[in-house]
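Attaching the record inline, Q. Sequence:
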Amino acid sequence: MSHAGAILGIKELIIEEVKRRDSIEVWARPSKRPNCKHCNSDSLRIKATHKRTIKHTRQGNQLMTLHLKVPKYHCLKCGRYFRHPFVGIRPRFRASEWFRLEVFEAHYGGVTQRKISRTHNISPTTIERWCPLPH
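Structure, as predicted:
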């Protein structure tokens, strides 16, 4: 794991830029191409790139936001397309699994929804969705 991967907890990332203000903004991209997830071939070309903004974790009192440059790959063997997969970041989600776990643990640890929504910059409705009440 790279030094950046050790800090962020996401393997195979190259950090391009970091800005610290009220929050921490990190711009990154993948360091290497994966094999095709459909046929496991390594003959891929980058068709396009897509930008994803993901809330990652908090370091101290600062929220860390990742701005990922995600390639869309075209497999030359099977002809199918897919986007670069990241461990801990699910497709079509705007928060990493670590961020969701942090909110979940804070909520069930006794922190109110109002306090979590202020500190993590998410709505109370999102907290209710992520942390359902036990039946």
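The two ends are 41 Å apart (CA to CA). The chain has two domains: 3-94, 95-135.

More tomorrow.
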